[in-house]
Amino acid sequence: MKFITVDSYDKMSRQAANIISAQVIIKPDSVLGLATGSTPIGAYKQLIKWYEKGDIDFSRVTSVNLDEYVGLDGHDEQSYRYFMNKNFFEHINIDLDNTYVPNGCAVDLQGEGKAYDEHIRQLGGIDLQLLGIGHDGHIGFNEPDDYFIKSTHVVDLHESTVKANARFFASEDEVPKRAITMGMVSIMQAKKILLIASGKEKREILEKSFYGPITPRIPASILQLHHDITVIYSEN
Ligand code: PGA
């Protein structure tokens, strides 16, 4: 594991963007595993700038996102599909047909999960998976549990996650209580993982995740077993 500490959100974002950019330059038809939340926004902004300068070409890239709220369709401004379109995809030359986010409105959510995993398998797996980390150690929406859940599945969000995400909604009541998330197999089979985190309040969970025991009570701790993971942490 490489654990890089930097002193600003901006540096974390630029370094993350550099790693993603290098991946796309070396393998133009990369499968990128992408994440939502506040943390990756700076990296997406940087990548957009480099795209605009002509330094990166996303035309052959495929993306698979980690998760989506159950019950929100892609036109809903709070959905993760909408987030990805607005914060990244609409500003670069990726083919929208090659961008995948789990469908939180699928009638058969279990079937959607199976199909999502099968699709990732058919793509040949994920070349580079970008991750954030929740205060409870979740990655994607893999919440603390008695065991690690392998496949893409529906999850009841923990109270702390609902509270943390309420900042994006008018009130806590409006935060969906369920989500569909990529499971641990697709994440752990990614060829490379890049986890980014920022802020002093993430320090403790990072220490527990990367230097403590591997336990499903801290889902990110499983990442200690990955063979090629880089963590970039900015204290501020
Ligand atoms: P954040 O979310 O980037 O908004 O802090 C991280 C996460 O919940 O995975």
Describe this structure in words.
The chain has about 240 residues and is α/β, with parallel strands linked by helices. It has one domain (about 1-230): Rossmann fold, CATH 3.40.50.1360. About 30% of the residues lie in helices and about 20% in strands. It has helices at about 10-25, 40-50, 80-85, 110-120, 160-165, 185-190, 205-210; strands at about 1-5, 30-35, 60-65, 65-70, 100, 130, 155, 180, 190-200, 230-235. The strands form two sheets. Strands 1-10-9-6-2-3-5 form a seven-stranded parallel sheet, with helices on one face. It has a three-stranded antiparallel sheet with strand order 4-8-7. Strand 9, helix 7 and strand 10 form a beta-alpha-beta unit. Helix 1 (about 10-25) crosses helix 2. The radius of gyration is 16 Å and the shape is globular. The two termini are about 20 Å apart. The mean pLDDT is about 95. The structure holds 2-phosphoglycolic acid (PGA). The site of 2-phosphoglycolic acid has 6 residues, from loops.
